[in-house]
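Predict the holo structure. Ligand: iron/sulfur cluster.
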Amino acid sequence: MEPLLLSKRERRKLASKYAELCLTCGTCAGGCPVSGIEGLDPRKVVRLAVLGLDQEIIDSKFPWVCTLCGRCEYACPMGVDLVTLLRSARGLRDRDKVPGVLHKGVEMCLNTGNNVGIPKEDFLFLLEDIGAELAEELPGFEVPVDQKGARLLVTINSKEPFAEPEDMTFWWKIFYAAGESWTVPSENWEGVNWGLFTGDDAALKEIVSRIVKNYKELECEYLLLPE
Ligand code: SF4
Ligand code: SF4
């Protein structure tokens, strides 16, 4: 079993921190919106980690129902690093046991540039099509793709072009009304990083680095991550 904490040295350091600092006061559990699910709460998770029962945490549903909101950590009088602990537990679960479609989405994003695998030509066709429809309401409107020097680089939740394309137009109408300078990249435009949610740091980094690459190459000033 791989230790929950990333190295033996780190494990000793953090385990000792929990052991020495956690008062078992339960303040973290009191503010947690998912306390009690699977019989766990953040205080109990800390106790399991202190006792070396890492696999129980990894196998549990709790790290996945945790919203990573950070309320527990914010409330903890001893500064225990609860969010890192919970996210590490997600990252240490075997990838084929990651709940739902999350890991498939990560792989899809790494392979195609978005979580649901929309091909580039379909994406561009959709932007053009919806843009033309919107131009009937907003004269001169078109979706600016790969526009170098735009002020704003806009990423998109793939759920929208996949199932709710109209939702993209809410942003576009605001940009139009504000006279904003903006652009959408033709590749690697996914705005939802499931590497973050699944504790997959390598995927997280790769997906972020692609967005940064777009941002630099298109010489934008701001990045919009609507999700
Ligand atoms: S709030 Fe902090 S000190 Fe109190 S039980 Fe939770 S982790 Fe331990
Ligand atoms: S970060 Fe997770 S464990 Fe902590 S309060 Fe939020 S939901 Fe609960």
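The pocket of iron/sulfur cluster (ligand 2) is lined by residues 31-34, 42, 66-72, 82-83, 86 (CB under 6 Å). Confidence is low (pLDDT under 50) at residues 1-6.
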